[in-house]
Specification:
CATH class of the largest domain: Mainly Alpha
Number of helices: 14
Strand content: 5-15%
Helix content: 40-55%
Structural class: alpha+beta
CATH topology of the largest domain: Serine Threonine Protein Phosphatase 5, Tetratricopeptide repeat
Strand order of the largest sheet: 3-2-1-7
Radius of gyration: 48 Å
């Protein structure tokens, strides 16, 4: 009768026959029971156990520590199972009774060894993680033994998953095989053969999108972890999936085509009377026609004003002045941007320009006129109001709004 269940795959746990969680206080005691439970049928010498758990101390100190640990472990195991004896001590040998002890590692190995689909399925369910995941006691020999067992059981679990995927695929259980492949990749994402198997399973089920996504996942993981690209077989399978998708797209119906049975015949209705038009539309729609409404040219538009198209308004063209010929005296004073546009009429008075000039710069008078400049009347006749407006605007923009003008020449 089983009185103690020990779980070593994943986090280490111990449960009694009633299902209650059993605890062992000392870390070395847990390591000792895990080491003995991994091989329930074998017996190990005390010296080997002492060197394994206390490798950093001398032999005498290691044996003394082992005796103390065994004394504490007997008391705790007697509280867990008072009717049965779990720990076996035969002269100088130590072990556990396999008749009262159930270990998941032993069950897992026996299920994988059978090779049956149901047994492999149960083994994959039993593998909950690496052997003694996260369990260390800071002793080199014991930690090395844990790493070796962990790697051995890890590889065994991957082979069991791959064998189960093969058996489920042959049986035609594509969905079960997909679930098994996904579970295997959660154990180790670097299995490129499992990625290929999952891509094939997706392609067999018709899910080409997930098959292509699985290739992208495989390529990203290999590039990030190993700095390598997928091998030639994986790339060939990817091209095959792309070809299948391309053929399926070309063989399918066009996006805009409709079956002849569901296509409606269109009919144009031109009727100005609202009541007659609505009655005709209702009769045609009930008969299965697609009604298109038309209107005669010049007919009254009885639609609501909000539904009518708004008339487009054309902007009036800009009035442009003829450009002066090259070499003209106004050519050197005009602005290429402002001279061609007629300025607003409210600014076109030369008297307003003169009054603004006198108000801003009263000291600017006749003495600022350059030698050889024309008289005031001649300058006004030559420098028209648009030219003066453009020159003032250009100068004020260029010099921060400060400008001094004579009748014909802007001065700074």
């Amino acid at each position: 009768m089983t009185t103690l269940h020990i779980q070593c795959l994943g986090d280490m746990q111990m449960r009694s026959s009633s299902g209650a969680l059993a605890t062992i206080s000392a870390k070395k005691s847990q390591a000792l029971i895990a080491f003995l439970a991994a091989k329930p049928g074998q017996r190990v010498s005390r010296d080997k156990v002492a060197l394994l758990l206390w490798s950093s101390t001398g032999p005498e100190q290691a044996r003394q520590s082992l005796r103390q640990t065994l004394s504490t472990l007997r008391k705790e195991l007697s509280q867990i199972s008072p009717d049965s004896r779990i720990l076996v001590e035969e002269n100088d040998l130590l072990g556990v009774d396999e008749n009262v002890l159930e270990v998941d590692v032993v069950t897992f190995e026996s299920l994988v060894a059978s090779g049956l689909e149901s047994a492999l399925d149960e083994a994959t369910r039993l593998y909950r993680g690496d052997f003694l995941d996260g369990f260390y006691i800071n002793e080199d020999r014991f930690d090395q033994w844990v790493l070796g067992e962990r790697d051995r059981l890890h590889r065994m679990a991957l082979r069991a998953h791959m064998h189960l995927i093969d058996l489920q695929s042959r049986r035609g259980a594509t969905d079960d095989a997909i679930i098994t492949a996904q579970k295997s990749l959660r154990i180790d994402m670097l299995q490129e053969p499992v990625h290929r198997a999952l891509m094939r399973l997706y392609m067999q089920s018709g899910d080409l999108v997930h098959a292509l996504q699985q290739y992208e996942t495989c390529a990203k993981v290999l590039k990030r972890e190993l700095r390598v690209d997928p091998d030639a077989e994986t790339k060939s399978l990817h091209r095959e999936i792309l070809a299948v998708r391309s053929r399926a797209t070309m063989a399918g119906p066009a996006a805009g085509d409709e079956p002849e049975q569901g296509r409606k015949k269109s009919i144009l209705v031109v009727e100005d009377n609202v009541l007659s038009r609505e009655l005709t539309n209702a009769l045609l729609k009930s008969a299965g026609y697609a009604v298109i409404q038309g209107r005669r040219r010049g007919a009254h538009d009885d639609r609501p004003r909000a539904c009518r198209p708004r008339p487009t308004r054309r902007r009036p063209p800009l009035h442009r002045r003829p450009q002066p010929p090259p070499g003209h005296p106004r050519e050197r004073h005009r602005s290429s941007r402002h001279l061609h546009l007629r300025p607003p009429r409210r600014r076109s008075g030369s008297a307003r320009l003169r009054s603004r000039r006198r108000r801003l710069h009263p000291q600017a008078g006749e003495e600022l006129r350059p030698p050889g400049a024309r008289s005031e009347g001649a300058a006004r006749s030559r420098l028209t109001a648009p030219v003066a407006y453009a020159a003032e605007r250009r100068t004020r923009l260029a010099y921060g709004g400060v400008g001094v003008f004579t009748d014909a020449y802007p001065l700074i």
